[in-house]
Amino acid sequence: MSKEIESETSKEEPQYKLYYFNGNGRAIIIRAILYYSKINFSDVKITKEDWIKLKQTGKFESEDLPVMEHENKLYSQMHAIEQYLGYTFNIHGKNMEDEYTINCLLDSFDDLFTIFKHFTWPETEEDKEHIKDYEKAFKSKFAFFVSVLEKKYKDKGKYFLGDYFSLADIFITSVLTNFAEKLDCQNIIKEQGPKIEELIERIKKNELKNFFEKGYIKESKF
Length: 222
Prior knowledge:
By secondary structure, the protein is of the alpha+beta class. It has ten helices and five strands; from the N terminus they run E-E-H-E-H-E-E-H-H-H-H-H-H-H-H.
């Protein structure tokens, strides 16, 4: 292949390698965690054509990306990687109730993304015929999701779980920002979650400043 990977790394040997396409997609939370941690890592961006060839090398046990490499081990499955890093960098909650809340948020990505991909990357004729319907359904679900988060967060304090920063804040800030920008529907967050909007803007300027300046990928609007 002419250019197998495009890597963003320092001169030091990276402690982690993240393999994903040149987009936010299913790697957005993992990237955000790694940038937040300020650990030395390599953000390996590949094309879909390269991924087909890389799978044939036998190095990857998973048929899907993202994949993370650490200490000569490969880790697959998006949420499993997110939780692994959450525990590694001590942002996965202080108790079982917090962990439950975080895991619910991580799982909710799948609920949103399942609808989102139908009209952003239509694969079937049915998808192509119902793009506007899927977009409408997504925005409705997105608005409901933001309103639920608003109710849960309203009286919590500085962060979503109270007085400390966690994976919940990373999820809300990165995922909601990406979905809203992609569909140009920031007004949904403003209307359904004014407190959530304040949280997002504060996190973007502080804990995730490094990520949004260096790791967040500005994608074209749908």
